[in-house]
Design goal:
Elements (H helix, E strand, L loop, with lengths): L9 H21 L7 H15 L13 H12 L5 H9 L2 H4 L4 H8 L1 H14 L7 H17 L1 H16 L6 H21 L3 H15 L1 H13 L1 H21 L4 E7 L2 H10 L11 E7 L6 H15 L1 E2 L5 E2 L12 E6 L5 E8 H9 L1 H6 L7 H21 L4 H13 L2 E5 L5 E5 L4 H8 L1 H5 L1 E6 L2 E3 L11 E5 L16 H33 L5 H10 L5 H9 L5 H12 L11 H12 L5 E3 L8 E3 L11 E5 L5 E5 L5 H7 L4 E6 L7 E10 L4 H12 L3 E10 L2 E10 L2 H12 L4 E7 L3
The structure holds manganese (II) ion (MN).
Length: 744
């Protein structure tokens, strides 16, 4: 297919040149992956995409084709994908947005490319839907495609990365939505696939658009402290790099600052100030060494480093002998550097470094070069198998499922062993019961306990790396509701829920028969209509729930009689619950004309509640979230649930702000750590109760080995009030850190 004949207008000509320039840059970036004949296929895909998108422009006004070229370049350069993926990336928006059909693609590029494009087209609308259940369902589909051909998800991640890089030109509400989604789903996915560089960039960009002020603040501080950091790194590196050279190592050695997002997390959730974060950068030593000497050479470098600087024995991490489940390999140690500062040092080979940055795709490239890679590859296979398993079997609410699943994406791993010495990888905090379900569903369902390192432990026992676990089963055992309170893996959760559901179904079946007899007794017809009405009357979510409760004795003849009496009254009809759509519409209608919900304003007609999950107090950045039964719930922007709400239910979010003059009190929590000194508790409480006349609700202190930790719940008027109090507490002798916490 020929490109469009050169334009008649002069700036179109310039654009054409720019397009070709970008295309050549793409070819250059992919040359490592190219084999004979590949260039022609890529050219063909480029020509097809160029023609198909020729009348389209991006929000920036640029020609649309810049986008697929950029996505293809990310695939080649930053993920290390090959020709098929480059072709698919170039074509990724054609079937959805242009006249080209999937059959066209199949005809021109074959079955493999068509399948991937189909996957990409199917998942592209995942978050555009209005209702959350469709979103969740689509996300599940997306993950299923992932287990078909992982390239679909890798290209999707490249697509998302380019959209995040060019988010500037979008409207504010779009920016927020895309950025929240990215942090909610795409960054965890990138992490799980070992795409470290992309994960980090997605998180930083996400933060830039969701918490702009904090992002700018940290970026500025990083910049300001750069010269000092550089001097320190130089001084640290110098003696090591000399010895490395002397001993014949080909090595790159440099300092690398942590991502803005990870610094932000430390500041926000650990309550440390920027200045106090000691591991704001890490030293990375990357050696070029043949595959058979990788491990021993890394340890030789470790030995050289620790000849100069004393290591902290608690902070040695050997991810070379046991790589993380996402493929990451490296040797980490923290040493005492010059000026008495702890410094993290990461030692790895060039190959390990590429895998660490680009993830599994880079891994595959080394398939033949490295011995023992088999086990790592099967780890990914193993992970995909688990996903497929969970996805296909699950009948639970898709949204719950995503939350469970997402937790597992980010979890750190532990390594445990079966009695025969086989190693299994589980998320951190996994229990003996998680392990049982990991072995087999039947083992999990009949698990009554376990022996960890030959000692008997309960099902809820948390496992640690290196534990050897033997599961004890009994035929009489059945899954219990309370198991859900302690298992952590998505697999165990979904299997337990499925079993409970099955059990419930059986009980409900009995309940149904029971109810039929009760109706008969009351001379009420046992019709679907009547069952429905009784269910509505009792405000139960389903008929099954009704039957279940009848079987369990929670619903008696008394209830049935009351409902029937009500039903016979001609004036009153059964009150139907309003639907979510109605509620949203009604609230939006009441709010019309105001830019935001004003909290504490007695004039507002809208019902609202402060959400207990993050306990907002005046001065906090807040937003409203529309609920069915409780009007609007007010959450802090930093609420742990905020990202999830904003990305999944954007249409239910309303702007909210505080009124000025309110003088009521709000519950807040403070966490204090320090050195256990005589009179410290007394001093702290004195400040709280007498100096600022704050009303304290509860107080708990814990002392251990000379340190103490305390939690105080108190009533304050606003954030200024709270900040002032925290400042005063920080000055108390012995206090090390004071942070605000959520009350529960
Ligand atoms: Mn796209």
């Amino acid at each position: 297919m020929a490109t469009k004949p050169s334009g008649v207008i002069i700036d179109l000509e310039a654009e054409r040149k720019e397009i070709l320039k970008r295309y050549r840059a793409l070819l250059k970036a992919s040359r490592r992956q190219l084999e004979k004949g590949d260039k022609q296929i890529i050219r063909k895909a480029f020509d097809v995409a160029l023609e198909a998108h020729k009348d389209m422009r991006r929000k920036t006004g640029e020609p649309y084709i810049y986008h697929p070229i950029a996505v293809a370049q990310i695939c080649a350069e930053e993920i290390g994908l090959g020709t098929t993926s480059i072709v698919c990336a170039l074509l990724h928006d054609t079937v959805e947005d242009t006249d080209i059909t999937l059959d066209d693609v199949r005809g021109m590029f074959g079955e493999k490319v068509a399948k991937i494009i189909d996957g990409l087209t199917k998942i592209s609308g995942v978050f555009d839907q209005q209702t959350n259940s469709i979103q969740a369902e689509n996300f599940r589909k997306m993950l299923l495609t992932l287990s078909d051909d992982i390239r679909v998800i890798l290209i999707k991640l490249a697509d998302r990365l380019h959209n995040m890089r060019t988010l500037e030109s979008m409207k504010r509400d779009k920016q927020l939505k895309i950025a929240s989604e990215t942090m909610y789903l795409y960054a965890p996915l990138a992490h799980r696939l070992g795409l470290n560089a992309i994960k980090t960039e997605l998180e930083d960009l996400g933060l830039k658009y969701t918490e702009t002020e904090e992002y700018d603040d940290i970026a500025l501080k990083l910049k300001e402290t750069e010269p000092e950091r550089k001097r320190f790194i130089q001084k640290f590196i110098l003696p090591i790099s000399e010895i490395l050279k002397e001993q014949g190592f080909k090595a790159r050695i440099f300092g690398r600052p942590k991502s803005i997002y990870s610094i932000y997390n430390k500041v926000r959730f650990k309550g440390v100030r920027f200045e106090e974060i000691y591991d704001i950068f890490a030293i990375r030593i990357i050696i070029d060494t043949p595959s058979e000497r990788e491990k021993s050479d890394c340890w030789r470098v470790y030995s050289i480093v620790t000849d100069f600087y004393h290591p902290n024995p608690d902070r040695l991490r050997d991810w070379i002998s046991t790589p993380r489940a996402n493929g990451y390999e490296s040797l980490h140690t923290t040493v005492m550097g010059p000026d008495g500062k702890w410094v993290e040092v990461q030692i790895r080979t060039e190959r390990m470094d590429e895998v660490a940055e680009k993830g599994y795709a880079a891994h595959w490239k080394y398939k033949d070069a490295v011995t023992g890679v088999e086990s790592k590859e099967s780890q990914l296979e193993e992970w995909l198998r688990k996903i497929r398993d969970v996805l296909e079997s699950t009948e639970e609410n898709a949204l719950d499922f995503i939350d469970d699943f997402k937790l597992n994406l980010f979890a750190e791993e532990i390594f445990v062993f079966t009695p025969k010495g086989e190693m299994r990888t589980l998320p951190i905090d996994s229990t003996a019961l998680d392990f049982a379900f990991d072995i087999h569903t039947k083992v999990g369902e009949s698990c009554i306990g376990a022996k960890v390192n030959h000692k008997l432990v309960p099902l809820s026992h948390s496992l640690k790396s290196g534990d050897q676990v033997e599961i004890l089963t009994s035929k009489k055992q059945q899954p219990k509701e309370d198991w859900l309170n302690f298992v952590v893996t998505a697999r165990a959760k979904s299997k337990i829920k499925a079993a409970l559901k099955e059990e419930k179904r059986k009980v409900a079946e009995e309940g149904r028969e029971l109810l039929e007899r009760k109706f008969e007794h009351q001379k009420i017809e046992f019709t679907v209509q009547n069952i429905n009405e009784l269910q509505m009357y009792l405000r139960l979510p389903s008929a099954q729930e009704l039957f279940y409760r009848v079987a369990k004795g929670a619903i008696s003849v008394k209830h049935i009689k009351a409902w029937h009496k009500e039903k016979l009254k001609p004036t009153k009809t059964a009150k139907n619950e309003p639907s979510l759509e109605q509620v949203v519409k009604e609230i939006r209608g009441k709010k019309a004309g105001e830019d935001a919900l004003v909290i504490g304003d007695n004039l507002t007609k809208i019902e609202y509640k402060l959400s207990p999950c993050c306990n907002p107090i005046p001065g906090d950045d807040v937003f409203g979230f529309i609920t069915i039964n409780e009007g609007i719930k007010i959450h802090r922007v930093t609420c742990p649930n905020a990202l999830q709400m904003m990305s999944n239910y954007a249409y239910r979010i309303v702007k909210a702000r505080w009124t000025q003059q309110e003088q009521i009190s709000f519950l807040a929590g403070i966490h204090i750590t320090g050195i256990d000194e005589v009179g410290l508790v007394n001093n702290v409480t004195k400040i709280i109760s007498s100096e600022l006349s704050v009303n304290m609700r509860s107080l708990s202190f814990d002392t251990k080995d000379g340190t103490f930790e305390g939690t105080i719940m108190l009533f304050v008027h606003d954030t200024m009030h709270l900040t002032e109090l925290i400042k005063k507490l920080r000055k108390v002798n012995g206090v090390i850190a004071v942070t605000r916490i959520n009350p529960n």
